[in-house]
C-alpha cells in the first residue's frame, strides 16, 4: 500500500490517490521537504495505471509514492464511476506553484530532462518569472550515464527536483536518485519543460477548463492517438469491472 495514509486517500484499481485540493497538495509536498522526509510525487493518469498492470516494478513505484495526485480527466472519470468526486490537479500547474513556494521559502531546486535547449530555455524563463527562484542544478534528459547526473545533482543539494523524461522513465530515475538524495522531493513532469521554455504551447483555456488537454495534444500530434486508444476505454472498462462490479 502507498504511504499516502490519511482520510482523503481514495483507491482506484488498487492504487491509492490523494484526493487533495491544489493547496492541500502543495502544503503536503512542502512538509515533506521541510521535515526532511523527502520522497516521490506521482501525477497519476490512466495510461500509467494501465501500464503498471503489466510492469510490476512500475506498480510498486506508484504504490510507494509519498504523494499521488490525480492528473488528467481520466482519473476523475474513473473515480466518478465509483461515486467519488475528485479534484483534478494538473501536474504542470502543481509543479509551477511548487516552484513559486520554493522560491519564497528559499528551497533550492533542480530540473532534469528534455532537450538541451529546452531545459535551458525552461530554467531561463522560470528564473525570470519567479523572483528569487534558486535553481542549483539542471541537466538535459538525453544522457546515458545516469549515475553521473545523480552524483552531480547530489553535490548541488537541491531539495525539490523536477524530472521530465516521460513516463515511466522519469519515475524510475526518481527512485534511483532518491537513494542519493533521500531528503529531497522529486516529481515527474512529462512535457512541462517544453511548455515553460515556449517550445510547445499549452492547450487553450477551453481545453484546460474541461480537462481536454489530451484532446488538444492529440489533434496537434496525431501519433499520440495510439497512447489514448485503446488505453482510455480499457481503463474505464477495468474500473467498471474491478472496482464497481467487483469482478476480479
Ligand atoms: N525526454 C527526455 N529524454 C528521453 C525521452 C524524452 O528528456 O530520453 C523528454 C522529452 O524531451 C520531453 C519529455 O521527456 O520533454 C516527455 O514529454 P512527454 O510529453 O512525452 O511526456 P509524457 O506524456 O510521456 O509524460
What can you tell me about this protein's structure?
The protein is α/β, with parallel strands linked by helices. It has a single domain, classed as 3-Layer(aba) Sandwich (Rossmann fold). Helix content is 51%, strand content 15%. It contains 13 helices and eight strands. It has helices at 22-34, 46-54, 56-63, 73-81, 91-104, 116-129, 146-156, 169-180, 192-196, 205-209, 213-220, 225-228, 231-244; strands at residues 9-12, 15-18, 39-44, 67-70, 109-113, 135-139, 160-164, 185-188. The strands form two sheets. The chain has a six-stranded parallel sheet, with helices on both faces. β7, α8 and β8 (185-188) form a beta-alpha-beta unit. α1 packs across α5. It is globular, with a radius of gyration of 17 Å. The mean pLDDT is 94. The structure holds uridine-5'-diphosphate. Uridine-5'-diphosphate binds next to α9.
Topology, pairings included?
Blueprint: E1 9-12, E2 15-18, H1 22-34, E3 39-44, H2 46-54, H3 56-63, E4 67-70, H4 73-81, H5 91-104, E5 109-113, H6 116-129, E6 135-139, H7 146-156, E7 160-164, H8 169-180, E8 185-188, H9 192-196, H10 205-209, H11 213-220, H12 225-228, H13 231-244
Parallel strand pairs: 3-4, 3-8, 5-6, 5-7, 7-8
Antiparallel strand pairs: 1-2
The site of uridine-5'-diphosphate has 13 residues, from helix 9.
Amino acid at each position: 500500500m502507498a504511504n499516502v495514509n490519511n482520510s482523503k486517500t481514495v483507491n482506484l484499481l488498487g492504487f491509492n490517490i490523494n484526493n487533495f485540493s491544489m493547496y492541500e497538495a502543495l502544503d503536503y509536498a512542502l512538509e515533506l521537504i521541510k521535515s526532511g522526509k523527502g520522497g516521490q510525487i506521482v501525477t497519476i493518469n490512466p495510461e500509467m495505471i494501465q501500464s503498471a498492470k503489466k510492469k510490476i516494478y512500475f506498480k510498486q513505484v506508484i504504490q510507494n509514492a509519498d504523494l499521488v495526485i490525480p492528473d488528467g480527466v481520466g482519473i476523475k472519470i474513473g473515480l466518478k464511476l465509483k461515486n467519488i468526486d475528485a479534484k483534478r490537479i494538473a501536474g504542470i500547474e502543481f509543479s509551477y506553484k511548487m516552484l513559486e513556494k520554493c522560491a519564497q521559502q528559499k528551497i533550492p531546486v533542480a530540473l532534469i530532462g528534455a532537450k538541451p535547449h529546452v531545459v535551458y530555455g525552461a530554467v531561463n524563463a522560470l528564473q525570470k518569472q519567479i523572483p528569487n527562484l534558486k535553481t542549483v542544478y539542471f541537466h538535459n534528459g538525453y544522457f546515458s550515464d545516469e549515475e553521473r547526473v545523480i552524483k552531480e545533482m547530489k553535490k548541488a543539494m537541491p531539495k525539490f527536483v523536477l524530472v521530465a523524461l516521460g513516463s515511466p522513465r522519469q519515475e524510475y530515475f526518481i527512485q534511483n536518485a532518491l537513494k542519493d538524495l533521500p531528503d529531497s522531493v522529486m516529481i515527474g513532469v512529462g512535457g512541462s519543460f517544453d511548455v515553460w521554455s515556449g517550445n510547445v504551447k499549452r492547450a487553450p483555456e477551453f481545453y484546460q477548463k474541461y480537462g481536454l488537454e489530451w484532446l488538444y495534444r492529440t489533434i496537434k500530434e496525431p501519433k499520440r492517438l495510439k497512447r489514448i486508444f485503446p488505453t482510455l476505454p480499457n481503463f474505464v472498462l477495468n474500473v467498471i469491472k474491478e472496482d464497481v462490479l467487483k469482478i476480479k
